[in-house]
Amino acid sequence: MDIYHAVSSGQTDTVRLLLDEGADVNARNVWYQTPLQAAAWEGEIDVVQLLLDKGAKVNAQGGQYGTALQAAAGTGVTKTVQLLLDRGANVNARGGIYGTALQAAVLRGVRETVQLLLDRGANVNAQGGEYGTALQAAASERAIEIVQLLLDRGADVNAQGGIYGTALQAAASKEDMEIVQLLLDRGADVNVQGGIYETALQAAAYRGITDIVRLLLDNDANVNTEGGEYRTALHAATISRNPEVVQLLLDGDLSSI
Predict the structure, then answer these.
(1) What is d(CA 115, CA 106) in angstroms, rounded to the nearest whole number?
(2) What is the DSSP secondary-structure string of 141-184?
(3) Do residues 208 and 245 touch, judged by C-beta distance below 8 A?
(4) Where do the ANK repeats start and stop (predicted)?
């Protein structure tokens, strides 16, 4: 039996037998890169322990999830994350689809895992992955408790990068009024440009969320900023077919004259 199959299916005794018979504990695989990463992703803590005891390289990099720690964080199995950290896993290793273990944990939405990684030295502002930062990922997932935790631990509310450009744009795109308000209260720049919608206002206008558009305008969002998928917030609003949002933007345009 292939060691990856045994690892992924949690067959601890079979994995031990294969290793005793000479199977390479660090055998490479295109998807997982190492058996340890496979075991971590599948949440097989007993297999993870066995592989580590047999000499698995805890910081081997590559594969879909970058490292075993990122794979474990992406499943939200805190005990596996704890084990890997205790065995020397680099909490700030970069790579893989999530960029960092912290961003992986945020996307899984397990606050306990996020807290553990931060307590063990995770860089709250590390860049990478689809969402650029852990804060943007949390905003995209509408995870307000994790957003609050990250901000309390020093997350840069205006960090740029990722598909939404900023956490504020992510929150606006996901129609989360509470997170938008929290980010603004914590100093988010309403007019930062970047990401697929260029501004938070354009994101909210495209979604047709009247209350968020009004909130952003009340916080001095520039109604005429150009760029992004729909060029302007007004154009985005016409696509959403929400006449109230269109009127708000037209009124905002007049007030800026």
Answers:
(1) 10
(2) TT-HHHHHHHHHTT--TT---STTSSHHHHHHHTT-HHHHHHHH
(3) yes
(4) 1-30, 34-63, 64-96, 100-129, 130-162, 166-195, 196-228
What percent of the chain is modeled with pLDDT above 90? 84
- Residue 183 vs residues 86, 118, 219: alpha-carbon distances, Å: 34, 20, 12
- Distances from the Cα of 257 to the Cα of 184, 222, 254, angstroms: 25, 12, 5
Task: Identify residue 75 by its one-letter amino acid code.
Answer: T
Query: Nearest CA to 69 among 45, 46, 94, 40?
Result: 40
Q: pLDDT-based confidence at 253, cuts 50/70/90?
A: low
CA distance 99 to 127: 7
Q: Quickly state the pLDDT bin for 1 (edges 50, 70, 90).
A: low
Instruction: Give dist(CA 189, CA 170) in Å, integer.
Output: 13
Residue 15 CA: distances (Å) to CA of 8, 33, 52, 143: 10, 17, 12, 38
User: What confidence tens digit (pLDDT) does each residue in 145-164 have?
Assistant: 999 999 999 999 999 999 99
pLDDT over 70 percentage in the chain: 98
> What residues contact residue 88 under an 8 Å CB cut-off, 6+ apart?
58, 59
Would you place residue 73 in the very low, low, confident or very high pLDDT band (cuts 50, 70, 90)? very high
Domains of the chain, CATH where assigned: 1-103 (1.25.40.20)
DSSP structure class, residue 247: H
